[in-house]
């Protein structure tokens, strides 16, 4: 009986086990379904994260493209601006070249016209000189026949007698000077003037040094282009400039009808000394100078001579050294430590380099310790000083022919 109960219990256990093992899957308990739900949720989150990462990458790529596009636009704009600037510069350069060519052509035409006028004037003056020479010879013969001395000119207030057969008779002369060479009514309109002056005994134009030279040599005044207080240096370009190197001063030496002077006297530089204009350096050979505001005596004097030779190629140009300036019985020294002798030395050097003769007026006999005798203020000649200058310049011109 005991064994039967044992086997019953075994059978019952087997049946229960089989019943449990062969139940349907859907009937699993809740705690068996939870791992599957968790796995599905994790897969969904991973997909969302991947999608978000892809979107972020696309956004970053788009932003990079936008930055590159903006940079490309800026580079294009810069290149376009550079091209437009280069084009404008090229057009401006072309216009400047065209203008320069037009100016060169106009200058050549003006020079040709000046040369033609100069040749015409020379021919007329030569004919006049020949007529005067013939008349002088006839007058001499007549006076000799009458037993009287021949005189082609008369002395005026101490002036030397005009040389009958002066090689300069009938030639025209223009003067480029400062206050020492001025006289009211005999200089261009608008030019500053010194003579006549209340403290100076020169009261008539015939008492000036330059008019005495004209009468002594038989020349005819074309233009006295002298400007009181003017210096060689200054603004060489301004239309109203008083600088000796300016275009205005150079052109004003020409006659009203374009007549070119036969002789040009240059007597400037003392105001450069008084203004302590830098003396500058000179190599001994000509240097091409350009227009600008000049504050260097060597450069200014050389530019002045170059312009004179360019505008008046047929004129005989003479440079004149400066009269002494004193301080008591001693030569005056300017703010740079230079004397009149320093400026005169540079005038000689520059003139020689350009083939221009020099009249050394500094040695006319007006010594530094005698300036109170020959000038009214230590600078401007009085009647006695003017006569000394006139005599010296006359002799130099007649010797040069």
From TrEMBL:
Look up the signal peptide feature and give its range. 1-32
Keyword Ribosomal protein listed? The answer is: no
Q: Which UniProt keywords apply?
A: Coiled coil, Hydrolase, Signal
Zinc among keywords: no
Q: Which GO terms of the molecular function aspect are on file?
A: phosphatidylcholine lysophospholipase activity
Residue stretches in coiled coil: 44-100
The protein depicted here goes by the name SGNH/GDSL hydrolase family protein
**Which organism is this entry from?**
Candidatus Eisenbergiella merdavium
Tell me the organism's taxonomic lineage. Bacteria, Bacillati, Bacillota, Clostridia, Lachnospirales
